[in-house]
Amino acid sequence: MDFEPSEEQALIVDQVRRFVREEIWPLEAKLDPDASRVEPEDQARLTAKTRAMGLYGLGIPPEFGGPEIDIVTQTLIAIETSQHRAGLYSPCFGAFGGAGLAQLYEANEDQKQRYLFPMLRGEKRGFFGLTEPSGGSDPARAIRTKAVRDGDDWVINGSKIFISGADGADFGIVFARTDAAQGRGGITCFIVDGDTPGFYVRRVVHTLRSGHYGTELQFEDARVPHANVLGEVNRGFAIANDRLTRQRIPYAAGCLGVAIRAQEMSIDYAKQRETFGAALSTRQAIQWMVVDNEIDIRTSRWAILAAACKAARGEPFRTEAAMAKLLASEGASRVVDRAIQIHGGYGVTKDLPLERWYREMRIRRIGEGPSEVQRIVMARDLFDQALY
Amino acid sequence: MGVRLEKPWRPLTAANVAALAAELGVYQLADAEGRVVRIGYAGGRTLFGLRSELQAALAAGEAAKFRTEVTAQYLSRYEELLMVHAADHGALPPGNAADARRRMGRLSPG
What one-character DSSP code corresponds to residue A160? Predict the structure, then answer.
């Protein structure tokens, strides 16, 4: 199988690469090393450029106004857009837009009018509320937030944690248990307005990722109308699961982009830096680190593109997506670690992006399902087991 | 670490500022009555961390008192302090008017 980009894909990748280097890098040089956002006027300027490039709203289906760009090309773009300091969690500071909460494409017409279309127009923001203090890797069992039907409403009680963007969101997609006797068959997905009485954002959860934080949510008798049930009652797990699988490909692509940039930096530095009268690049210890980086990078790239190609063909890609996520997050972690070693003391300073990537990459081995869960997903498929 | 910055206020004097370590972190400035006038942070580009930031505040005559918290998570902590202040007082401190230009989050810290 040949994963070389087509001529059109190569042109788009080149365009995005120049955008990152010419627009994002200079802007980022003036920001705090941990910054995850830019000033509103810079944001508007960047977005205007990606719109002019015809690349705004990647991931939004064409029928909803997104560009006609297939998932393989989107993946190639995602590998490019993370190649800057904030790129892992804020690729190009959101200049290419995104699909937002893709679950809303399956919403009914009323919900689309109230939430999806305003979100796509940039008028409303949403959050994805799945993980709870009781766990995030096994949502079928870990979800303890309860929703009980009361007339035309559902009454929600419980809490969520590590939820990004909830403090600034207009609404959220929240998963709650609606049938205690069922596992994954007892979870329902609700659209919760941010100003719902009884819904609280209690605190910022401080992590290794300083500029892009999570929050802890609390629901105390929060009443949500039945009209805000997304999909069907007790069928919410499928919505969550589909999202988790799809998200693994761009998540892995983001890791790979950072690894590629760390490798470029390592090679450049090793050619310039001299020790004991010769460039680092002539030292076998350094050469082997660079070679090991390249092995991790190419392995991840093949796995990511294999998953994207299968998804593009409409074939099942759960195992491939899990493998890509595992290989890319673990491989990129090793690449960044070696890059720091090659850069020596400078590698751990805030002068270079490596220390930020090192911290944030540690989260990537946990976020969107830790490596162990990716192995469980693959093992289930290999043994042809149903999800339990 | 509590949600609020509850350390005792210290007079904003040259001696107190000079004694600060060059650490990353967050700080609050207050007037003589203890009303917070600005929340700030010393980030990765600050020359001497909190000491530099507070020296600038002292030179500008911005406040009578200050308090600090050393933290590597200065950006998320800064956002948290802004949101907690807005929740407690209904608005950002006067010195943080520039932050109101962007869309702030909201907390209900309880």
Answer: E
Integer-rounded Cα radius of gyration of chain B: 13
| Residue A264: active-site member | no
CATH top class, domain B10-101: alpha beta
Q: A with B: how many residue pairs have Cβ under 8 Å apart?
A: 71
Residue of A nearest to B99 (CA): A39
CB contact under 8 A, A167 and B72: no
Work out whether strand A187-193 and strand A153-164 pair parallel, antiparallel, or are unpaired. Answer: unpaired
- Cβ neighbors of A216 (< 8 A, separation 6 or more) are A159, A160, A161, A163, A201, A202, A203, A205
- Give per-residue pLDDT as tens, B28-61: 999 999 999 999 999 999 999 999 999 999 999 9
Are the beta carbons of A329 and A248 closer than 8 angstroms?
no
Q: Cβ–Cβ of A213/B79 closer than 8 Å?
A: yes
- ipTM score assigned to the predicted complex: 0.90
All domains of chain A in start order, with CATH: 7-101 (1.10.540), 126-230 (2.40.110.10), 240-382 (1.20.140.10)
Closest residue in B to A123 (Cα) is B103
Taking an 8 Å cut-off on Cβ atoms, the answer to whether A210 and B104 are in contact is no
* Least CB–CB distance from B74: residue in A200, A204, A210: A210
Closest-CA distance of chain B to residue A324, Å: 30
Instruction: Residue A39: list chain B partners with CB under 8 A.
Output: 102
Record the tokens describing residue A220, joined without a space.
Answer: 């105390």
Q: Where are the domains of chain B?
A: 10-101
Report, as an integer, the average pLDDT of A356-378: 95
> What is the pLDDT at residue A385?
67
- The partner residue sitting opposite A32, judged by closest CB among B45, B72, B110, is B45
Residue A96 · residue A79 · CB < 8 Å: no
For A253-275, write each residue's pLDDT tens digit.
999 999 999 999 999 999 999 99
pLDDT tens digits, residue range A224-241?
999 999 999 999 988 878
- A350 with B44: Cβ contact below 8 A: yes
- Subunit contact B73:A40, Cβ cutoff 8 A: no
Backbone angles phi, psi at A323, to 5 degrees: -65, -40
Tell whether the model's pLDDT for residue A6 goes beyond 50: yes
pTM of the predicted model over 0.90? yes
Q: What single-letter amino acid sits at A6?
A: S
